[in-house]
Amino acid sequence: MTEYQRIGGRRMDDTATLPSARTARRWRRRVEQLGRNVRYCHTGNKRMTSGIFGFPLVLLAVYRKIFPKATRYECIAFLYRSYSGALPIPRVYSLKNITDAENSIGLNRKKGSTTAYQAFTYRNLLRRYRYWTMAYPHGIADIARDDMIDVDEAGIKLENANRRMGKACLSGRVRDRGNYGHGTNHTLKMAISGNADGRRWVQFDTAGTDALSFANFITTVLESLGPGTPGNR
Fold first, then answer.
1. Which domain holds residue 19?
2. Do 131 and 137 touch, CB atoms closer than 8 A?
């Protein structure tokens, strides 16, 4: 042998560096079964009987992507209904199983946010631009802050309250869709004056908000102001 190569602490010639036929067959079979030739983890011939591995881990990752604010109990119920409940021996995962599995795929607990996608439509973006940049009566660009009264309403459904925390990957956000289109149990209407007095008008009831009820609230605010100041619009 004229040329040598040190591999694994042994001196071998170049012709001995090629894998054997048995190794090649094992690699090909692994590609056919798993889709890629990956090395197996050394377990010391001890079968893993606890934890979440394989396809259930994929299901958990997808479920967390869709519902980042779901609790661990909801994850357990989802995995049981979609996978482990149909096994020959049904299995219910524990809270620790969910935590360990989420840690293994890089999910971190962080504060979440809720995005109102209706606010990003072209129509609403155009309204916002005109409101802040155009003069009265199309906008408020020429109105003093002391002469403004900010009015808004909010619908609250207690059983669908947004959760503050969730889980996502390190570079991702915990972002969830708002609960729109479900009807509301409680409605809050509030108006705040921009002057130094900072007057506030509040109306809280269990009825929904429509154009008539909102107009009645604005009328109540206007009637409580009294005589207008000359020059104000």
1. 5-34
2. no
Token pair in block for residue 25: 């067959």
Report pLDDT for 106. Answer: 86
* Nearest one of 124, 148, 153 to 136, comparing CA atoms: 148
pTM, two decimals, is 0.41
Q: Token digits for 4?
A: 């040598």
**Residue 196 included in any domain:** yes
Q: Is 70 in the same domain as 149?
A: no
Classify residue 20 as left (phi > 0), alpha (psi -120 to 50) or beta: beta
Helices (H) and strands (E) in the chain, counts: 6, 9
Last residue of a domain, one of 105, 132, 147: 105
- Residue 12 is inside which H or E element, if any? strand 10-12
- Tens-digit pLDDT profile for residues 83-105: 988 888 888 999 999 999 998 88
